[in-house]
Amino acid sequence: MSGFVLITRHPSDCAELQAMLDPCGLKLRPFPVLRLSEVHDEEAWGAVTERLSDLAAKAWLVLASPRAPERFAAACRQFGVEELLELPVAAVGTGTADAARRTGFRVEQVGPGSGAGLAQQLAREIVDPTTFIFACGRDRRSELPRGLCAAGHEVLPIVVYQMDPTPPRELPPLGPSLEAVVLTSPRAAQLYLEGVGGLPLPCRHWALGTTTQTAAAAIGIECLIPPEPNLESLAEELCKS
Description:
Elements: E1 3-7, H1 15-21, E2 26-30, E3 34-38, H2 42-50, H3 52-58, E4 60-63, H4 68-78, E5 88-92, H5 93-103, E6 106-111, H6 115-125, E7 131-137, H7 143-150, E8 154-165, E9 178-183, H8 186-195, E10 204-207, H9 210-218, H10 231-240
Parallel strand pairs: 1-2, 1-9, 4-5, 4-7, 5-6, 7-8, 9-10
Antiparallel strand pairs: 3-8
Helix pairs in contact: 1-10, 4-5, 6-7, 8-9
């Protein structure tokens, strides 16, 4: 088959899914309703610095987005806490794990494509109470830290980036031949709807998981979800549909 899939991501975040869609002839058309800017969470970095000797010896770093590793590493150098660059890393999904390795981190755990899945995996494999530094965005899902805390671990979030709405006038044209739309978060679903004029485009809509699916349904967008909340399963379903 051939055609285009609109996705509410920046082009730089699309390479992994695009590679999975190449065999069936589908091309992603990025519709980046959110754009990235860096955040310097000085209060959180101060708290981490006060406990540096203990954290550097015992803590883990958890990452849920490929946007986080490079920005966390840069902030470690900025705040003079390079010891944290040696922490073992647990990552949500292969895309985040690959971004962490490219930045120089030692990735020891790669969970499925959801924060809840990684939290469950870590709870099974790390029994002793552990501190997890969570390098994250300002607007983030709660499943990963909540799951780790429920398992008796400590989570220290450090915000290293934020995603702000892209002004509608700066969004790219929708273009023809759309086979589907992929909504990547509840917030992206709302901004997508605003960006296309208030009515969903006349094609199938997909979400990676039930959280985005439920949020989209609340604003009038009916979304399908793949059997598993990861890019591999999504790509398989897109190629079949």
